[in-house]
Amino acid sequence: MRFSWVFILSLLFTAGCAKLGYLTEQGIGQVRLQMSGKSNEEVLNNPKISPSFKRKILLVEEYKKFFYYYFGQKASNIYSKTSFLDNKAVTYLVIASPHTEIKAHEFEFPIMGSFPYLGFFKLDSAKSFAADLQENDKLVTWIRPVYAYSTLGYLEDRILSSFFEYDEVELAELVFHELFHTIFFIKDDVDLNENLANLYGKEMLKEYFKDRPELTNYLSNIEKKTQIDKRVVELIGILQSEFAKLGGFNTAAKADVLTERFVNEVFKPDIKKLCAKLNMDESDCELKDNWNQASFAAFLTYEEEQDFLTDLKNAKNINLKDFLAWLKVEHGIFNDQNKIDNFTAYLKLKVPNAPLAVDRSN
To answer: DSSP labels for 169-185?
Structure first.
């Protein structure tokens, strides 16, 4: 599973947030990132830059041109400059969850809505914030390195040296994913935004690479990873049901012990077995050491709804461009009504045999 996360730019502009120091630090980090950017032309003409890096920059420019041409939109200045980072990751996300639930803690911001994570440019700051959440808010935390993010058009996003870790097809998916955020973004719905970008990132690969061998190999591996991801979701559901059985008798201590036993005795052996069955290298499976309530919650945030979106697109039987146009129209209709709680629930009504959405009009 590979994440490509949206950066919370709103943190730099909103008042009333918990810590002014946090806003200041992230603002400085963002400014430094912007200021460090060199024009792609300058980087490409620099003899000290490796040919392999230059090739990746040219590929990003090519993918960007293809993306905006495909959707018939004028290209923005995104990815017109390149920033070289001191670390492999550009930022670090802190995700938190209650001990007795598998549910991402929401951080609220006035302009952009709520987000299930906070981003930090410094790993030490992320660790300090996570420790504070654990001690004062009694939450379980998980820190995730981030290699790409979108400022949603507020700033001119840079090509980051972290991009160079990806191969040609992976890089294309990453760029298509991030560019999708620039043409369609729904306030206060991180789950849907990320899953739509995931969908479009993968589908745009088929449009760009067509039947090239590297795409066939990549999609085969993705299909295997999809099977792994589905099993992970099923296993998380088992842990959730165990929490539910404890009901009011569940405590943080009991939940932590239950989670640790579940990870070591059920989760990892099950995933390892499936991985072997699919002839996958264990490094490509979900076998990291730090599975906990927070990392499980983060996984659900970005994996649980992708099947629903694929089913929706297939039900409409339209291409990517028409599907996007349909989404925009439906979002306008959704905004004009007050019965359905969120756009995801609204869209699920459009899928054949979908469950009824909750009516909040009474």
So the answer is: HHHHHHHHHHHHHHH--
182: nearest Cα among 9, 12, 34, 39: 9
Phi, psi of 244 (to 5 degrees): -65, -35
The residue out of 125, 147, 165 marking a domain boundary is: 165
Tell me which amino acid residue 319 is.
Answer: N
Helices 20-35 and 123-136, packing angle to 10 deg: 160
Question: Is position 124 within any domain?
Answer: yes
Looking at residue 21, its amino acid is G
> 239 — alpha (psi -120 to 50), left (phi > 0) or beta?
alpha
The count of domains in the chain is 2
| Interval 13-39: pLDDT, tens | 443 444 456 666 666 777 777 777 899
Rounded to the nearest 10 degrees, the angle between the axes of helix 320-335 and helix 190-209 is 160
Residue 277 counted as domain residue: no
191-209 pLDDT, tens per residue?
788 889 989 999 999 999 9
- Among 165, 180, 202, the domain boundary falls at 165
State the Cα–Cα distance between residues 266 and 263, nearest whole angstrom: 6
Residues 6+ apart with CB under 8 A from 333: none
Which residues constitute the domain of residue 103? Answer: 9-165
3-state DSSP assignment of residue 83: strand
Q: Residue 109 falls within a domain, yes or no? A: yes
Of 241, 233, 8, 2, the C-alpha closest to 116 is 8
Question: Rounded to the nearest 10 degrees, how much is the dihedral formed by the CA atoms of 187, 191, 193, 194?
Answer: 140
Residue 81: phi, psi to the nearest 5?
-130, 160
